[in-house]
Design brief:
Elements (H helix, E strand, L loop, with lengths): L14 H12 L4 H14 L6 E7 L5 H9 L1 E2 L8 H7 L8 E5 L6 E5 L7 E7 L14
Antiparallel strand pairs: 1-5, 2-3, 3-4, 4-5
C-alpha cells in the first residue's frame, strides 16, 4: 500500500506581498505583462487589483480638481504605455483629442480629453486602498 503524501495547505500571501506583486506588474511596459494582468482580472474579477475604477475628473468643478489637473505632466510618447496606463486607455480613447498624462507625485496615469465641443476633463484610476484605512474585503457570492 503506497504511503499517503501530505502537504501543508498553501497560505495566502500577505496584503503587502499582493500589493507589491500587482505594483511590479502594472509598472511594466511589456505586452506579456498586460496579458498576464488581463488574465488575472478575468480569473478572479480583479480581487487583488490595487486601483479602483476609471473615474472622470472635471477641473472646473472645484479647486482641488483644478490644482491636481494643473500638476499633471505629459507621459513620454517614445515609450509604450505601462499596464496601468493600458488599463486606463482601454476605456474608450480618442487619439485626436486625448493626451496621456502622469501625476508627478503619485505616478498615477491620467488622460486629458480636450474635445472642442465639451468642457475639458481628465480620466484617471481611483485608488482602491487608502494608507490610513484598513484594506477592504470583497465578499464572494
Amino acid at each position: 500500500m503506497p504511503a499517503e503524501l501530505r502537504r501543508a495547505e498553501p497560505t495566502a500571501p500577505s496584503e503587502m506581498v499582493r500589493r507589491a506583486g500587482w505594483l511590479s506588474l502594472t509598472e511594466r511596459r511589456a505586452v506579456l505583462a498586460h496579458r498576464v494582468v488581463d488574465f488575472a482580472m478575468r480569473w478572479d474579477g480583479g480581487e487583488g487589483w490595487h486601483t479602483g475604477a476609471a473615474v472622470s475628473v472635471r477641473p472646473a468643478s472645484c479647486a482641488t480638481a483644478r490644482q491636481w489637473a494643473e500638476r499633471l505632466v505629459p507621459a513620454d510618447r517614445e515609450q509604450a504605455p505601462t499596464v496601468l496606463e493600458h488599463q486606463l486607455l482601454d476605456n474608450a480613447r480618442d487619439a485626436e483629442t486625448d493626451v496621456l498624462m502622469r501625476a508627478p507625485v503619485t505616478g498615477v496615469p491620467a488622460f486629458r480629453r480636450c474635445a472642442a465641443r465639451r468642457k475639458p476633463r481628465t480620466k484617471t484610476s481611483s485608488p482602491s486602498h487608502c494608507s490610513v484605512c484598513p484594506p477592504r474585503r470583497r465578499s464572494r457570492p
